[in-house]
Each structure stands twice: as structure tokens, then as C-alpha cells.
């Protein structure tokens, strides 16, 4: 493992690796078991290992990685057209890099150990289990969406105004998040702690 | 009072926020520095927001104008939604619905009696610890752990920039220290060169429906019309107002409870349909909501707290007769 590769991994995680180099690095990770292990250790065994919660792997990340691998190693989220137009040029490449970094991080996790999400790391420390957002039984068999539930979005925005700055960021991020993140549960489940 | 907290500190915040930490800096010091930095510094960042199985890229731009925070929070992925906090209002753009929800800024309101802030009472409810962290985004990091002493609130692990106390990553943790929600920056610029132009919405809202509160519904109240019979430990009523939410025809009572770090809003509105509506819980990320019907009113508690907390607060509320009004229609 050369220092250059390590620097590339670091740059990738900082969202500062050029798109072309990112594609090459992801492709190389596809073939190189050792590189995947090193990359996973960078992502997970660093700050994340010290986190009580560890890394949350998501299907969304997996989809981005799949796209990266299928389309030549460069994955980007698909912003709404107006977002592309409104986004300053200086953000575009870092955003792509960040998206690839996030996606490639999961790729590394998945490739190191396909049974990701309950990843066991070197040293025998197990990551705590991830809490799924929809762990509760949806009422009526279908989860509502934020678009369907404008009232909840309004509540979150109004609530965020009275929260601490960090609380406001959390509340408003949830208001912005895409719809499938909402789950309804029967009250008896909600009462459980 | 919120304004009393933010405005007097704004003048020194830039200095305080960038002052180097000393060896004796406590977790509460870090939290106070973080709070000041978030409210006072100019910054422009990209972050990954993860809740359960969902992840989204988001961007936040923040500046201060005449000592007041203005910011723009944008979803860079599918929804294209964004929230812009101007000096006077909060605009929530919903491109998928071609709607903009408009809320007046609340932090200048005389109704707000207290700002949730990391004060000394936190020790009774949380344990606070600091530990050195490794570098993130090529910055030295200080980790602050906020662990709840009971199951009525979530914990936080914060990775703070050692220079500015800006959170580079923040995880919301449940009682078993499992991550419920995470915000991790992948890029963060701090400084005066964050352009005010970046606060302009990226959404072309031409033809959108702008939904504003009905001004006649805003009513100054001296006393909350509803009060809790029993509250989770540490939570107290810090503010209340009577107004309407954008797009909703009825007047809403809004009560805000806080334990000094977490906060819960309760919205009370007349029930729309005939007959009682069964209680319902909703979860989005670490935010939980619980709705129930009391005396013909729908009571909904919302907050970044466990489901049981919003349930307990919502079900403990009862009307105070008569609700006192001092002005307004």
C-alpha cells in the first residue's frame, strides 16, 4: 500500500478527490481485497469505531455504489434540476466526491464483509446494531409521506424555531429528508421504551 | 429569553468561538462555544444526513446579518426541498408540492420566555464528558458525549472542531447508545468569504403556492390554555403562543417544553373530522410525534426525543379554563 493510495483514500473521504481518480480508486477497490480492507478501516475503524453508534449503512448508499461500479466508477446523487442550476460551480466536484466517498464507504463495508450493518471489526469490537427508522409496524400497511403530511412538515419547521441550534438542524434536516423516512406506528409500540 | 441569549453574545461570539480551548475546558464550555459558533459564524458546508436506512446529502449556509442568524438548508438529493431563514421569516420550499410554507421568525417574539440552552441543570439529566478525537476534515477534533440519565431523552455524541467548536459530526443516540440519526460534514468552509448570495433559494418558486399564517389568528396570550398534569423529569414549559400554521385554517396553540437541551413542541388544534381519531405515532429520523384527541382538540407533541416522551407529554395535557387572552381578534 503506497502513501499515494493512502492520500487518495484520505482525499476521497474529504470529498476532495477528482472524479477521474475517484473512479479509478473505486475500480481498484473492486479488485483489491487489501485496499478494501484499508479503506474500510479508514472509514470505520477511525472516528466511527469510537462512536457508540458506528456507521449506518443504507440502501441509498448501496444504490450509489452500484451506480458507480456499473457506470464507470463515478456516482452522483441526482439533484433536482433547479438544484443543479442553483449550485455554485465550486461545490459540484466536492459534492460528487462526497457522494462517491459516502457510497464507496459502504462499498468497502459490503465488500469486506457482505453481512454489513452488524460489522465486526478488528479487535473483536462489534458495532452496535442500527436502529431502523421503520422498526415499528406501519399503521394500515403503508407509511405516509412528508408530501402527504404537510402538517407534520409544518410542525417540524415551527418546532425547529424553538430548538437549540443543533436541535434545529436535526429537526429541519428531518423536514427536508425524503419521504420514505417516515414511519407510523401504533401507539402501544410508541409507548415502549 | 431567546433574544436575550443570542443577541448580547453575538458581538463577542466570533472571538469566543475561535478562542483556543484550554486544558480545563469542560463539556459544558464546549457546548456553549458550539452554540455560539452555530449562531454567529459564517459557514457553508455539505453534510450527509442519515436516519435509519435513509441517507441524504444536504448543504447548509449560515451568516449573521446585524447580529441575527440567517441560513439556508438544502436537500441536494431527490426532494430538492430547502429551508431559508431570512431575518424576518422562515421559508420552507417544497418543490414536490410546488408549495412554500412561510413562518414568521420566532426568536424575536416576546412570547418566548426561555431559550433551551446548555445550563447547569443539564448535570441532573445528562452526563457530559469530553475526550480527544482524531482529525476530521483535516481539523483537530474534540469529542463531547452527552448521555441521558434516563430514557426520556436522546444522547448525543458531537465531534467538534477544536478551533471553532463547530460540530463536524453529530450522532443522536438512543438509550442503548445506538445511532438514531447522524449528521456528518464532508466539507465545511468557515469565514467571512461565505457569500450572502448563497443564502438565496435555489428553487425557482414562480407559480408556487405561498402559504402563510393567517395574521388575524396571531393572538397574544398571557397564560397557556393547556397545561400538563405530569411531565417527564426535567422538562418544563418555556414558551407558548397562539397562532395559525401556514396553510391551516384554524388557530393553533403551540407550547414548547425543554429540558435545557432537548425540546418538545405541542400543537393543539380543533379536530377536523367527526368523531374521535385514534392516537397515532409518527417517526422521522430522531423526531417523534404523537397525536391524540382531548376535549375535541387534536394534541400533537413533536420533538427529537424518544417516542415515549412525546406520548407522555401529549397525553398529560389538559385544558385550563378559561384560556386567557390579551388582545388580538
Write a brief structural summary.
Chain A is built from nine helices and one strand, in the order H-H-H-H-H-H-H-H-E-H. By secondary structure, chain A is an all-alpha fold. Chain B has helices at residues 2-18, 27-40, 122-125, 307-316, and strands at 43-51, 54-65, 68-75, 82-85, 89-94, 99-104, 126-136, 139-148, 155-161, 167-173, 179-190, 209-211, 226-228, 236-243, 252-258, 263-270, 280-284, 287-294, 297-303, 317-319.
- Kindly give the count of domains of chain B: 2
Major sheet: arrangement of strands of chain B: 7-8-9-10-11-1-2-3-4-5-6-12
Question: So, CATH architecture of the largest domain in chain B?
Answer: Clam
Count of helices of chain A? Answer: 9
What is the averaged pLDDT score of chain B? 82
In total, the number of strands of chain A is 1
Helix and strand run of chain A = HHHHHHHHEH
Q: What are the low-pLDDT stretches of chain B, counting only 5+ consecutive residues below 50?
A: 1-20, 108-116, 323-329
Helicity range of chain A = 55-70%
Mean pLDDT of chain A: 51
What CATH calls the topology of the largest domain in chain B is: outer membrane lipoprotein receptor (LolB), chain A
Protein described:
By secondary structure, chain A is mostly helical. In chain A, 58% of the residues lie in helices and 2% in strands. Chain A has helices spanning 3-13, 19-31, 33-50, 59-70, 81-86, 89-112, 150-160, 165-176, 187-190; one strand at 182-185. In chain A, helix 2 (19-31) crosses helix 3 (33-50) and helix 2 (19-31) packs parallel to helix 6 (89-112). The relative contact order of chain A is 0.12. The model of chain A is unreliable at 44-148 and 184-193 (pLDDT under 50). Chain B is mainly β. Chain B is built from four helices and 20 strands. The relative contact order of chain B is 0.14. Chain B has helices at residues 2-18, 27-40, 122-125, 307-316; strands spanning 43-51, 54-65, 68-75, 82-85, 89-94, 99-104, 126-136, 139-148, 155-161, 167-173, 179-190, 209-211, 226-228, 236-243, 252-258, 263-270, 280-284, 287-294, 297-303, 317-319. The longest helix of chain B is centred in the first third of the chain and has 17 residues, at 2-18. Chain B starts with a helix and ends in a 10-residue tail after the last strand. Chain B folds into two domains: 10-199, outer membrane lipoprotein receptor (LolB), chain A (Clam); 213-321, Phosphorylase Kinase, domain 1, CATH 3.30.200. Residues 1-20, 108-116 and 323-329 of chain B have low confidence and may be disordered. The interface between A and B is large, with 86 and 122 residues.
